[in-house]
User: Which sequence fits this backbone?
């Protein structure tokens, strides 16, 4: 096996180990990461990203919430309305991810995608309030993929939406929360990627 393939496998294994650590900290986070990675990669491919960019996008999608390892697990599981302080602690996960990612220099390209996955296209997101094309494309893709996953999965506080209802919701937020080109690409590939882990 070539050195390059060996290195790629080692890196994939490292990403998998970090996702497993996240799953131990917050049960359900690992499966969420895996689904967001599938949705993001399909969307990135539709948008014409090249192979190297798609590999980085997949790692970023797997690790987009890895900063939650530094968030109190009780808070991750809290049911009901969060206080302002709890909300701030939760929002900090986008920046706290850096503590983990900076340990691996080869993960440097994914740092902006992870850090900015909660920005909004209209500039009202966090942590920096970036808007439009100032948000890295990978972060814009992960934002759409993550929302679709959250909407279509069962949670303690609500029943899952069906696919078409979730797609309607993404389209409703296109241009405000989401990049319209990303929503269009996601919607084009969505029939190929039914919600994973959910009965058809
Ligand atoms: Fe997140």
Assistant:
């Amino acid at each position: 096996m070539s050195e390059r393939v060996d290195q790629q496998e080692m890196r994939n294994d490292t990403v998998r180990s970090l996702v497993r650590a996240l799953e131990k900290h917050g049960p359900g986070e690992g499966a969420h990461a895996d689904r967001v990675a599938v949705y993001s990669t399909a969307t990135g491919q539709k948008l014409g990203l090249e192979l190297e960019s798609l590999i980085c996008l997949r790692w970023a999608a797997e690790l987009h919430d890895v900063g939650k390892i530094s968030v109190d697990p009780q808070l991750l599981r809290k049911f009901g309305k969060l206080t302002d302080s709890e909300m701030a602690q939760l929002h900090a996960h986008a920046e706290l991810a850096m503590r983990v990612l900076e340990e691996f220099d080869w993960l440097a390209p994914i740092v902006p995608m992870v850090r900015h996955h909660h920005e909004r296209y209209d500039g009202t997101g966090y942590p920096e309030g970036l808007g439009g094309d100032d948000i890295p494309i990978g972060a814009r893709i992960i934002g759409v993929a993550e929302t679709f996953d959250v909407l279509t999965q069962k949670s303690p506080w609500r029943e899952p939406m069906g696919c078409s209802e979730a797609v309607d919701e993404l389209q409703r937020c296109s241009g405000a929360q989401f990049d319209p080109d990303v929503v269009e690409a996601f919607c084009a590939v969505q029939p190929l990627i039914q919600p994973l882990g959910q009965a058809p």
User: Anything to note?
Assistant: The first helix runs from residue 3 to 25. The chain has a mean pLDDT of 94.
